[in-house]
Amino acid sequence: MFIKPFVALALVLVALSGAAQAQLSDTEQKIVAAVQQRSPAALVLLEKAVRINSGTLNPEGVRAVGDLFRAELDALGFQTRWIDMPPAMKRAGHLVATHDGGQGQRLLLLGHLDTVFEKSSAVPLWERHGDWVRGQGVNDMKGGDVILLEALRALQAVGALAPARIDVMLTGDEERTGRPLTVARADLVALAKKADYALSFESSHRHQGTDSVSIARRAAGGWVLRVKGKPGHSMGVFSSASGHGAVYEAARILNAFREQVVEPHLTFNPGLVYGGTEVRYAEDSATATVLGKSNVIARDAEVRGDLRYLSPEQGERARQKMQSIVTTGNLPGTSATIRFTETYPPMPPTEAGQQLAARYSQASQDAGLGRIELLDPGWRGAGDVQFVAPYTVGIDGLGAQGRGAHTDDEALEIASIERGAIRAALLIYRLTRPAP
């Protein structure tokens, strides 16, 4: 159901981006030159940011990166403010910057300050290897934050920023979102409701030699399966008196999920499975404790899984199918329940998103940087742009290119900073110009 519409959008994008290229205007040529002139300084700024550990659970580090970028935005003429989160949330908060020149369409530019690398991480903060840099969050997504800033700086250098209406939000907990989400993302949603377009600077992907951008991202949620059986001596397993036990019932349910719930762009991963006579789970450490013996029929079993889907309708279909499997056809002597949660809402592909991506692709081609393709949503995780998708038109993947995001080998291609800043600056310029 979802493959054909997405492929159709991709084909339209290729057709549009393959149209006759317009020449860069004099102002746009100056924008490109301004980005190129700043490339060495942009790398210095990136190094400053990456050398600050800003794991989500290190609020002081997140705030320090926020202070660094806030000074850059202040110098560009933005009105900046820091939004604190409630102390119980244990998150640093968010940086918001506003520039209201009073003309053109209003843009919302998105990034995040935190990384997956906490203070205890042994990954080096910064290591340069020729044309690449390895480090904590260098690709996801401090490189994207720098591209955002350099694009704005280039616009200011040629006098094109003054009339623009732009909001910037750099969240401090994208990698481990604070709870409740209604509080953690309330300010982001409020900004989205005022924006004509949202541009997110998460890392870019290259597929078969061509750069790509995302107009769709799958929801990120979860599920917890709890199964009950009759404890007893293992000699009685499968009997009418003892039943099959909780572990066999959990296995039946998981296999039925695999066989019956599969759809394109839908995934459901059982990341943690545990069972025995007694089970416990600690949310704060994501660890399970199990008591049991091989000669005792399991009384309890639990499974904690991930659920990703491309539209609300697909998500609802999946939940209904999974619920039916859990409560129908239970093995003798067992029962089961399942609970679902949603962390990031889905961002389904839209025609308006495709058109925005086509404009980004055209800007890239006009600058001699090649066309941009649509990235299959299965190749990208969840991100903050999904919270704004219901209220405005957004695209993601305008950030740096690299490899190994979220791993010990996370790295960034240095040249992608300049490419990304040129593309973003041209797109922002074209979107914010007052209508003739």
Automatic annotation (TrEMBL):
Top-level taxon in the UniProt lineage: Bacteria
InterPro entries in the cross-refs: ArgE/DapE_CS, Bact_exopeptidase_dim_dom, Peptidase_M20, Peptidase_M20_dimer, Peptidase_M20A
Protein source organism: Curvibacter cyanobacteriorum
Residue ranges of every copy of the Peptidase M20 dimerisation domain listed in the record: 215-330
Cofactor: Zn(2+)
UniProt xrefs under Pfam families: M20_dimer (PF07687), Peptidase_M20 (PF01546)
Signal sequence, start to end: 1-22
Protein name, per record: M20/M25/M40 family metallo-hydrolase
Coiled coil: none
Keyword Metal-binding: yes
Keyword Signal: yes
UniProtKB keywords: Hydrolase, Metal-binding, Signal, Zinc
